Hints:
With about 70 residues, this protein is mainly α. It has one domain (about 5-65). It has helices at about 5-10, 15-35, 40-50, 60-65. The chain is elongated, with a radius of gyration of 12 Å.
Amino acid sequence: MESDGVAMENCGEHDFEVSCAFKRAAVLIGRAARSLPAAPVQAAVKAPLANDAYGLRCPLGFIAVEQ
């Protein structure tokens, strides 16, 4: 997730496809997070959410809420 800036800056005209890939990654991270303790998961997503320059990390916010 932290490579979203590099991916978006270098994807050319494929920004939609790249953003979809990051959304799918967030879904997978959310599935994995369900089997982990809530406190470490919330701490882990806090920093990436604070530095979301492209809006691709937004789905991670739901992980912290669902926990």
